[in-house]
Amino acid sequence: MTEFIEPRAARQAQPATRALTQAAVVAGRAPSIFNSQPWRWRIADDVAELRADRQRQLPTVDPDGRLLTVSCGAALHHACVALATVGFAAEVARLPDEGDPDLLARMQVVGVREPERAMLRLRWAMARRHTDRRPFAEVDVPPPALHQLCEAAETQGAHLRPLGPDEVERLAVATARAGRTEFADPRYRAELSAWTGRPHGTRNGIEPATAAHHEPRPVPMRNLDPGGVPDTTTHDLVDRHTCYAILSTDTDTPADWLAAGEALSAVLLTATAEGAAASPISDVIEVPATRQTLRDLLSGAGYPMVALRLGVPGDSPLAAAARRAPADVIDIADAQGRPRAGPG
Ligand SMILES: Cc1cc2nc3c(=O)[nH]c(=O)nc-3n(C[C@H](O)[C@H](O)[C@H](O)COP(=O)(O)O)c2cc1C
User: Fold this and answer.
1) In what order do the strands lie in the sheet with 159-162?
2) For residue 1, is pLDDT > 50?
3) CB of 222 closer than 6 angstroms to any ligand 1 atom
4) Which residues constitute the signal peptide according to the record (predicted)?
């Protein structure tokens, strides 16, 4: 993705509008379920509103919109980091209107501030982070780096819990069961097919180049081939040094889903900054029975939002997933709320 392609309307606008537009463009890099990029930005003067795009929700995989909201939370965190690194201070109101649940956040520029080093580090990572489904290298993620990932989750109001060997086995059994359950549902295979076979040029969905090779791992990877069968065998020939972890929140409301997404973004960007790599695992969350298994694994303390596979990246080439054009995602309005000349 090209950096900072500014819609024409933003180029003519005041600095805060321009900075918010740049932040919304950069937020397009955030990870999302099936690369659905289910968000929209509306920017007017010094305010940017983040909205859920329900047309991009996955009705079978994600009927409640939990993973959609997690994805939007990741975009929100990306935008906050991007704005901070160009020297703007903002106040963010999350779910500010009870009567309008799709309005997920309102971000207002309130001044200028020297960018912090920590933010610059995450901004650097943003351009380099990709979901990495390749086998990881034969070395452990250094414990201090893991500690930083856990701290990154905590700062966003969530928890990251690395799993011990027995817990990894339980995660593997639950993930294999989730795969079997989902693949047995023709609606799931149809949804997977729709998001893995997007028309050329739409710049969303999962492209085959970014999918995993089929080789048994300690925890099965989601098979992204809708005509295939779920991966249910486990083996530690590859990924022997992989760390598996669960990202959770204390309660299970839309506000928690949004916070989980912000935490997911913070964890993934911190991992990249630390030289580690990750791939989210959410099929085990999508099936209620296996999500309950993960809750039990956390001893009932909290609600699992996504599992993560963490490791040190290998050196084979890593493909980047495409992103929608900023003009399709960002609307810029003038002070009276009328659309400006139109993005692009
Ligand atoms: C909430 C959420 C759930 C995800 N679940 C999975 C998953 O189960 N399996 C997987 O391989 N990738 C998963 N991903 C990764 C997305 O497929 C990935 O972010 C998207 O394709 C964009 O690619 P990128 O992360 O490389 O930018 C998930 C991402 C998010 C945000």
Assistant:
1) 159-162, 243-249, 303-311, 277-281
2) no
3) yes
4) none
Cβ(177)–Cβ(290) below 8 Å: yes
Q: How far apart are CA 157 and CA 206, in angstroms?
A: 29
Q: Is 37 in the pocket of ligand 1 (CB under 6 A)?
A: no
Extents of the domains making up the chain? 8-127+324-333, 143-311
The pLDDT tens digits of the residues spanning 262-277 come to 999 999 999 999 999 9
Q: Matching CATH topology for 8-127+324-333 and 143-311?
A: yes
Ligand 1 in contact with 36 (CB < 6 A)?
Answer: no
Give the chain's end-to-end CA distance (angstroms, integer). Answer: 15
Q: Is residue 71 lining ligand 1, measured as CB closer than 6 Å? A: yes
CATH assignment of 143-311, among 3.20.20.70, 3.40.640.10, 3.40.50.300, 3.40.109.10: 3.40.109.10
Q: What is the mean pLDDT of the chain?
A: 92
pLDDT tens digits for range 2-27: 344 455 666 666 999 999 999 999 99
Say if domain 8-127+324-333 classifies as CATH 3.40.109.10.
Answer: yes
Taking Cα atoms as reference points, which of 23, 86, 31, 32 lies closest to residue 50? 23
Question: How many whole angstroms from 34 Cα to the centroid of ligand 1?
Answer: 6
